[in-house]
C-alpha cells in the first residue's frame, strides 16, 4: 500500500508526474501539452493545450458501459416525487436542454445563469451548459432579488433558466417574482429566460423574453447536440462564495483541472466506486452541490441522489430510508444537518438497513466533538471531516483513506490533501510555523492544485489582491482561517481570521471558545463573537441554544447555566477567554447553507447595520439577539 506522506510529497515535488498520472482518470479529446503551466504566478494553467469536456466525462463516456444504470435519482419529499434517470436518459435530457440553448443563440463562452430549486432540470441545465462550452452560474434558490441582481450584473448571462417555484417544509416558495424583480434591478438584461413550470405557482410571462421549457423540449426530443471540445483551461462555471464574511466573490473554475481533481478525489478521498450511489445532502447552489451532487459522482460513473426537502420531513428517518432504498455507499452532509438530526429521536437511525454505507463525510463548518461522537455512535460508520472552500472546489484537508487508511481525530479535518502545500503562517512575520500546536493562518503555497479557482470572474486583480497578498513578504494563498497542526500532521481549524477576538491584547479564535462551551452537556449549539469594548478592546459574547429549553424557564436556572458555562471556559481555556455574557437563544442566525452568521451577530451586538442578509435562514433568530442585547 502507498504511504500517504510519500504520496503527498510527490504531489508537490513532482507536480508534472503526479498530476499527469491523475489526468488519466478522465477522457481527453486531445492530450494536454503541458501538465502545469506556472509562467504567470499566482495564475496557473493546468493541462494547457488539452481538450476535453465536463459533460462528456460526466455523461457520454459512461454510455458504453452503463447506459442503463442509474445516473440521477431525484427525490422530492415536498412534491412527493421520485424519478430515476439512467445514464441513457440523462444523456437524452441534457441534449434536449443543450438544443434549447442552441436554439436561443447561446454560444461557447456565454453565461447561463441557473436560478432553480433542486429539480432534475437544474442538473440538465448545468450539464447542458458545459456541453456546449457555455459557462454556468448557479445562484442558490434561497437568494432574494438583490443578491440575484448583483450576480446577474457580475456574470452578465445571455440566458437565465428558472422555475415557477421551489418548496420548503410544505410551503411553496415562488421564484419568478424574485427573478423578475432582480432583472428589473440589474443593469444587465438577459435576452431570454427559460421557465420550467412545475405547476406550483402561476406566473406572469414577459413577452419576447420568457420562453417555456416544456414547449421547447418537445421540439427537441431527438436533437443531437455533440459535446463541444474545449481547452482544459476554458471556464466551466462561475460560483459565488457564500458571502459569510462580506461581498461574495465570483469563483471561476476551469474544465480539465476540475474534472481531474474531482475524479481523483472520488478515488483517494471519498472512495466511491462506479455503479454505486452517492448521496450529498447539499444544494446545487453551493460548491458541494456542484462538486459532489453533480460532477464528482457522475464523472465517477456513480448514481447521485438529488434531494428536495428537509432532513426531518416526513420524519427524521427520511435520509436513512434513502440510504437503504438506493444502497447509498458514500454520503456527504454538513455538521449543521447532523445537529438538526441530533435533536430528534435517535431511533430513526436504527429503523433502516444502513449496511451499504461505507462512510459519512462532513464539511462546511467546524465539526464539534459532541456532534461527531453522536453521529459516529449512531451510524457505526467512519465519520470523515473535510475542510475546503468554494474557492478550492474540493478538499484542502481530509483523511485520504483511498491512498492509505488512517484514523480520524475528533475535531480535526485531517491532513493536507495531496496537491496542496499547506502551511501555517505566523501572522506577524509571515514565516511558516514549524513547531506543533502553534496557531497560524492556514495558507497554501502556489500553485494551487487542479480544480481550484482560476481567478475571480472578470477581475484578475481582485484574485491577486484578495487571496495572494495578505501574507507579509510572500505570495501565498490565504484561506483566511486559523489553524494549528499536531505532531502527526493533523490540522485543527480554529475559526476565521476575521472571527478573532482581541481581548486586552490576547488573540483568541472564536472557535476555541465555542468548542469549550459546547462541551457543556446542556448546550446544543453556540456562537461566540467579539464585541467592541471600551476597556478591553473587545470582549467575547456567547449565544447558546440549549438541548432542553423547558428546564431553563426560570431566571435562576439561566443564571446557573451561565455560571457553569463560564466555569467550563475558565477551566479549559483560562479566564481571558471567558465571555462577558452567555445568552440563551432559541436559534442561531445562519445562512441557508448552515453557516452561523457571526458577522451579523457581531454587527447587531455593536449596534451596527447587519449588512447583506439575503442568505439568512431565519430572520427571527437575529431579531431575538437584537432584543437581548438592547
Ligand atoms: P465568504 O468567503 O463569501 O465569506 P464562506 O467562506 O462561508 O463565504 P464557503 O466557501 O462556502 O464560503 O466556506 C468556506 C469556509 O467554511 C472555510 O474557509 C472555513 O471557514 C469553513 N469550513 C469549511 N469546511 C470546514 C471544516 N471541515 N471545518 C471547519 N471549517 C470549515
Ligand atoms: Mg470564504
Structure description:
This protein is α/β, with parallel strands linked by helices. It is 31% helix and 23% strand. Strand 6 (111-115), helix 6 and strand 7 (135-138) form a beta-alpha-beta unit. Helix 1 packs across helix 2, helix 10 (256-270) crosses helix 11 and helix 19 packs parallel to helix 20. The longest helix is centred in the last third of the chain and has 19 residues, at 555-573. It is globular. The site of adenosine-5'-triphosphate (ATP) has 23 residues, from strand 26 and strand 27.
Identify the notable features of this structure and list them briefly:
seven-stranded mixed sheet; 630 residues; alpha/beta; binds magnesium ion; binds adenosine-5'-triphosphate; five-stranded parallel sheet
Provide a quick synopsis of the model:
This protein has 630 residues and is α/β, with parallel strands linked by helices.
What's the N-to-C terminus distance? 60 Å
Beta content comes to 15-25%
Instruction: From the alpha carbons, calculate the radius of gyration and give it in angstroms.
Output: 24 Å
Low-confidence stretches: none
The beta-strand count equals: 32
Given helix and strand content, the structural type is: alpha/beta
The overall average pLDDT, rounded, is: 94
Q: Judging from the principal axes of the Cα atoms, what is the shape?
A: globular
The total of helices stands at 20
Order of strands, widest sheet: 5-4-17-16-18-19-20
Helix content: 25-40%
Q: What ligands are attached or bound here?
A: adenosine-5'-triphosphate, magnesium ion
- Major sheet size, sense and barrel closure: 7 strands, mixed
